Amino acid sequence: MKPLRTAVFPVAGLGTRSFPATKVIPKEMLTVVDKPIIQFAVEEARAAGIESLVFVTSRGKTLMEDHFDQHRELYEMLDRRGKVVELASARAAEIPVGQLTCVRQPEPLGLGHAVWCARNVVRDEPFAVLLPDELFLCEKPLLAQLVEIYNEYGGNVIAVSEVPKDQTARYGIVDPGEDDGRIATVRGLVEKPEPHEAPSNLSIVGRYILQPQVMDVLSRGSVGKGGEVQLTDAMARLIGLQPFHAARFEGHRFDCGGRAGFVAANVAYGLQRPDLASAIRAALAPVLAEDEQRRAETLP
Ligand code: UTP
User: For the residues of 142-195, what is the DSSP string, one character each?
Assistant: First the structure.
């Protein structure tokens, strides 16, 4: 079994759910507390031992490359001014030289197509995919949880979470086989099934460990739901040919590609910060109390 060394970050989407914020700024550069959301995903990958990072980018996304680059003039200025903490935090965002590759997706043709754009970097190695707009607040970083399972079973490992049965049409859904309550073998995958057609309520979330053969399937360019090249459809073709497991994870998921998830992530991550938590609680307490009162008054 080959070790996992490469991670692909599809960041070429349009981010229309976050307009107008993302009309010019890449969605992945929106900040949760004081860090762009892409940096959370990069740190998660590095915590899981990833050495080669691949951004699948598009026009207008170069800000992201700059964020992870060295910035000599800024460092020298901060150093001259004795801004030790600020210097350390700017430098902590660097990706070591030679570990970042950027490939372009000229048109947003779907997540499957974005992943396929990274094929010449991935080559014949297993790779992780991290969708950076999904943040996972976990004691052990989520990709590291998946790597543990990968080291035991090999093959493909995807993270899943339970969603309300009436919401299956928003997600890729797993048809589970043998299931011990945490890890299930994957018998099938269906992209956005209507509730009455859904084989379970286990939805695929934005962390995957995949075998390189998925690139061969994606090369066919088959178009699925929504007229896009779907990663879920390509992964489904590997079932039965390679081990395939779905893992429920311990922690909270925030979909920062949507407005409510993004705001909730800011509050949740802010409350994790010892330097900010009490100030955030104090600022929110009267707002929440007023909100509670307003809702009580409007209830029938
Ligand atoms: P999303 O559907 O959440 O992102 O795709 P989006 O298309 O940018 O967002 P909306 O719906 O218009 O608001 C999940 C991830 O896959 C990437 C996105 O950048 C995001 O990180 N993606 C999606 C691509 O890189 N290329 C695509 O063609 C589609």
Answer: HHHHHHHHHHHH-SEEEEEEE--GGGGGGSEEEEEEEE-SSEEEEEEEEES--G
